[in-house]
Hints:
By secondary structure, this protein is α+β, with helices and mostly antiparallel strands. Helices cover about 30% and strands about 40% of the residues. The protein folds into two domains: about 1-60, no CATH class; about 65-165, TATA-Binding Protein, CATH 3.30.310.
Amino acid sequence: xxxxxxxxxxxxxxxxxxxxxxxxxxxxxxxxxxxxxxxxxxxxxxxxxxxxxxxxxxxxxxxxxxxxxxxxxxxxxxxxxxxxxxxxxxxxxxxxxxxxxxxxxxxxxxxxxxxxxxxxxxxxxxxxxxxxxxxxxxxxxxxxxxxxxxxxxxxxxxxxxxxxx
Length: 165
């Protein structure tokens, strides 16, 4: 993933926390201006329906309650049952990072990804358990997918998917 993609995503998430108490329109205008100053280009920022989104030169970011999967989310990647809480994508790099809140435990979520990805033709190239944080790495057609599942409390997990070429 490009440094610009990660920088814009990190900057946008920071704005969400800093500007959370401001009016949506004002927060959007301030965030848009600041992002444009940082990248030296155009940005489109929208705060609405308990979701914040931005599109900056092909890099799209969404965070909140009504987040959808990125347009470039591939059909051969398993999507666990749950609520998408953030999505970052870059059309130029064909890269994305998605966070999903699921009712499954982290262990069960990691096992589901191992099983479902293998069934979709992905080769499992690594897995680990670091004190309750489960990681699965898979490859297919020159692409690498990393899945991390972390217990969020109450037996639920947050699953983070990231793919790059």
